Amino acid sequence: PEEIRVYEFAEKINKPVGEVIKELFSLGVMFTKNDFLDKDSIEILADTFGINVTTVNDQESFDYVKAYDEEGEASEQNLVERAPVITIMGHVDHGKTSLLDYIRSAKVAAGEAGGITQHVGAYMVEKNGRNITFIDTPGHEAFTEMRSRGAKVTDIVIVVVAADDGVKPQTKEAVEHAKAAGVPIIIAVNKMDKESANPDLVKAQLAELGITPIDWGGEHEFVPVSAKTGMGIEDLLETILLQADVLELKADPSRDVKATVIESSLEKGRGPVATVVVQDGTMRVGDIVVAGIAFGKVKALLNDRGIAVKEALPGEPVVVLGLSEVPGAGETLINVKSDKIAREYAKKKAEYLRQKELSKSTKVSLDELSDMI
Ligand code: GDP
Ligand code: MG
């Protein structure tokens, strides 16, 4: 019932279907009028067209997350500060990868076991004795990733803009997505080492999009940086921590774990491997978990440097081994009481996905048929 097609949505909000499709296209996603809208797209559209929508999560699909949420409240007295989770977005070639690499290598002691050679979906760095978690997924996937994970796991978005190139289409998209997700934005004005850097132009262009710098009377931090020389990177990390203070990010490590899958794959010799970021509770080796269609007893946990750890705290990224399947990115992982429950939830989820696929293909072809008559 909460499933809605593009044309149905357009009818409901009294807009031509073409306008809705155009809007979606400008956000970088292709929809035809018969496609079902996902929850994130509905929320973004609602924001764009200035309407209120309430989306209802599918009962069966999110059953287990609901069960977790009802199980126990985080108790006020157990709440502790957790690391902020950061996603970096921006136009291609503006320096997302360079920035992530610079931050990671500058903060990881040389020669440390595991090193930083292998790719991880998320990593954590320390600044002023506090932790910051960065999500590091391939640049071209940043938008879809953000869409699939929604605001579930990102606390702050850093939009990187090259000072020698200014605001570009994907800069606008990044701003739109962050706004729609209601996530605070910090602007990293990158490539400041370049002769042709023009940070004032970047400020003016972003002010036009409603992202006005603090020194111009607005409320957005613009941090000049260079991913090449490292200039301004410490300032950027400090700005993140200040923003995190405003957000008052807290979690209860004494609860059962709730985490979000950032990345997953099937690895030779290791089986299904998932990188998750813990949102609440503590994740431990031996936990019985379910994540979408995957379940299992956590065999091992590896930190972002590939080192085995016993547990992972709220805000921390960790690689999970021991799952039955490869869970989808964006799935919520929770700890459950028994293997039986874990299997049951995973089975329900698989059944739900099958039904959804089925209804989608049959409904769409019926609609297309009636269009042709
Ligand atoms: P991405 O597509 O946003 O991930 O951008 P990359 O990190 O791949 O960077 C694109 C190009 O810009 C690469 O050739 C980088 O070496 C270069 N680059 C990135 N940051 C800087 C910077 O701060 N200064 C200079 N001079 N070049 C940079
Ligand atoms: Mg890149």
Structure, described:
This protein is α+β, with helices and mostly antiparallel strands and 373 residues long. Helix content is 34%, strand content 24%. The chain has helices at residues 6-12, 17-26, 39-48, 63-71, 96-107, 142-149, 169-181, 199-208, 233-247, 339-372; strands at 4-5, 36-37, 80-81, 85-90, 122-127, 130-135, 156-162, 185-190, 222-224, 250-251, 258-267, 271-280, 283-284, 288-291, 294-297, 300-302, 308-309, 311-312, 317-321, 332-335. The two termini are 26 Å apart. The structure holds guanosine-5'-diphosphate (GDP) and magnesium ion (MG).
Structure in a nutshell:
The protein has 10 helices and 20 strands. By secondary structure, the protein is an alpha+beta fold. Helix 1 crosses helix 2 and helix 3 packs across helix 7.
User: Please, what is the average pLDDT?
Assistant: 85
Largest sheet properties = 8 strands, antiparallel
- Put simply, the count of helices is 10
Strand order of the largest sheet: 15-14-20-11-12-19-16-17
Mind telling me the C-alpha Rg? 22 Å
Order of helices and strands: EHHEHHEEHEEHEHEHEHEEEEEEEEEEEH
Query: In whole angstroms, how far apart are the ends?
Result: 26 Å
What structural category arises from helix and sheet content? alpha+beta
Count the strands?
A: 20
**Bound molecule kinds, no repeats:** guanosine-5'-diphosphate, magnesium ion
- Provide the helix percentage: 25-40%
Strand content: 15-25%
Anisotropy-based shape: globular
Low-confidence stretches: 56-61, 362-373
